[in-house]
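Dear all,

This email documents one entry for the complex benchmark we are building for the journal club exercise. For each entry we list the sequence lines for every component of the assembly. Then comes the predicted three-dimensional structure of the complex as a token string, followed by one or two observations. Please use this as the template for your own entries, and keep the labels exactly as they appear.
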Amino acid sequence: MSDSRAAQVYGGESLLFLTDEQLRQGIEAMFFAYRGFTADPDRILADMSYGRAHHRAIHFINRAPGTTVNNLLAILGVTKQSLNRVLRTLIADSLVESRVGKLDKRERHLHLTEAGRALEAQLSDAQRARMRAAYKEAGPEAVAGFKQVLEAMMDADMRRAYVKLRDGTP
Amino acid sequence: MSDSRAAQVYGGESLLFLTDEQLRQGIEAMFFAYRGFTADPDRILADMSYGRAHHRAIHFINRAPGTTVNNLLAILGVTKQSLNRVLRTLIADSLVESRVGKLDKRERHLHLTEAGRALEAQLSDAQRARMRAAYKEAGPEAVAGFKQVLEAMMDADMRRAYVKLRDGTP
DNA sequence: CTTGGAATGTCAACAAGGCTGACGTAAACT
DNA sequence: AGTTTACGTCAGCCTTGTTGACATTCCAAG
């Protein structure tokens, strides 16, 4: 099981890309690339007293303004207590606004303030710059493959959330 | 800067894949996919009292048996205090062995024990299974693109480390 | 209408795993 | 002999995850 060669030919197509060696390369690529992926925003956030969790919250509030805490919870995949701590500081610092729901007063609808949008843009710009350079270096076909593999790697729930965000939320 | 259309044509090739929207998709794909990427080993480790940090150490010790602490530090990108805490528990639990260097007695060479290799295989199998499914679903060309983009996303240092591991350490 | 349960969000306390800083020891280098 | 390198460790801090307890609000069954 641990050293499946997978060097057979199946349906006329070589399966050499499924060797353990190829898979290991992908695993290590994910590890190193994710570090790069988060490095630039992390540097910016380190100066303020924020962390990656704040970035994630800001990102998704910006993506879906008015989203509820529960909604955000599902997307971020953390406990509400964990998210709450982050939100509390963001609200205290006037980057995020929490509005009591009109229909259901239990819900809180989250919005970025002007300052919040400014920080979001700063973080986003930094992360996109690296992404853009990588895309440019690899080319459009590589990018298509990149997205396909990542999507196939997600848990089913997350995949639904991703696709929903990607295709707009009708 | 924040909403560059990038919809021009450059060198005869469309640059539509470099729009902010495309970049944002890639960013979110990385976020969700990384969660899936770590989910299976995390579940296994949760039962023991280990975490992701232990997994990383075990992975790279297995990849480069006899590596030194300093070496591992550079690859993992953490402080020695942080790594040491992890290594201490792994050594105490007889999953890792630390041997004093023969040429340079200041160095400690790290090896997995039999038990260490068993755990590594268990974690590795779980992670590879997901990777294999994703590769299979996306196909060989997508996988090639996936790796290209990830490699281009890494910091230069990490890219060197990655390539060195990938091509064997001569 | 009331009451009990479900949903939503907040507060408190704890653990993992990053970090810095300081220090000690042994070996290697100059 | 003195300096540098490799490693280990102690102490303390921060972020970010966790569980447990609790308040508020909604809704539906009696």
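Observations: The first strand of chain B starts at residue 9 and ends at 10. The mean pLDDT of chain B is 92.
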